[in-house]
Amino acid sequence: MESLTFIVGVIGNIISVLMFLAPVKTFWRIVKEKSTEEFESLPYICTLLNSSLWVYYGITKPGSYLVATVNSFGVVVEIIYISLFLIYAHPKMRAKTAVLAGFLDVGFLTVAILVTRLAMDGEMRIDVIGFLGAGLNIVMYGSPLGAMVPNGTGFILGTAQLVLYAIYRPSSKRVLDDVEHGWQTEYLLPTSVPVLPLQSQSEKY
């Protein structure tokens, strides 16, 4: 059973390494173009925080060295990614990246380590670190919904507008009838008729 667990852990580590290396093509493009273009640094900042928490978890929990080793690799890779962002991003994005990295990867991580080390011990400490890592995983993998929800809302509202237009739009026959009626009214009932003065028979002759 232990050998099976070890094999599954090794396979999981290989998959994790491949996931950490997935953005290499993106960063090769950034280095080649010397610009981060429209790419965002937040996913890499969150991944660095997540990997750091799992390294802490692997160090704290006995027998979890596989978790610690693969996430240590992830920490190194994500630091490289964020460093490239700081080098090639425009000033506004560079400042944003620095602030987020300082707040999350330094501030939040430091607070999490201090709280769990000073206020907790034993299994409770391990469980809390695991819950933090798992919760951050959910936030990371669910973050694309932030883009999907506004688009989905726009699709629903746009569809509703089309349906309402199809229901209440005037028919072409009605439009033609209105146009024809207006033309007849304009020419059969002119707005003003000139009044000619009446002439007597004597004036006529």
Tell the overall outline.
Answer: extended
From the N-terminal CA to the C-terminal CA, the straight-line distance is 132 Å
Secondary-structure-based class equals mainly alpha
Strand content: under 5%
Proportion of helical residues:
over 70%
> How many strand segments?
0
Tell me, rounded to a whole number, the average pLDDT. Answer: 78
Q: State the oligomer.
A: single chain
Low-confidence stretches are 183-196, 198-205
What string, H for helix and E for strand, traces the elements in order?
A: HHHHHHHHH
Provide a count of the helices.
9
- Rg, rounded, reads 36 Å
**Strand count, sense and closure of the main sheet?**
none
Polypeptide structure, described:
It contains nine helices and no strands. The chain starts with a helix and ends with a helix. The longest helix is centred in the middle third of the chain and has 28 residues, at 91-118. The chain has helices at 2-21, 24-33, 42-60, 65-88, 91-118, 122-142, 145-168, 172-188, 201-204. Residues 183-196 and 198-205 have low confidence and may be disordered. It is mainly α and 205 residues long. It is extended and about 70 Å long. α3 (42-60) packs antiparallel against α4 and α3 runs parallel beside α5.
Tags for this model:
single chain, disordered C terminus, extended, 0% strand, 9 helices, 81% helix, 205 residues, mainly alpha
Helices and strands in order, then pairings?
Layout lengths: L1 H20 L2 H10 L8 H19 L4 H24 L2 H28 L3 H21 L2 H24 L3 H17 L12 H4 L1
Helix pairs in contact: 1-4, 3-4, 3-5, 3-6, 4-5
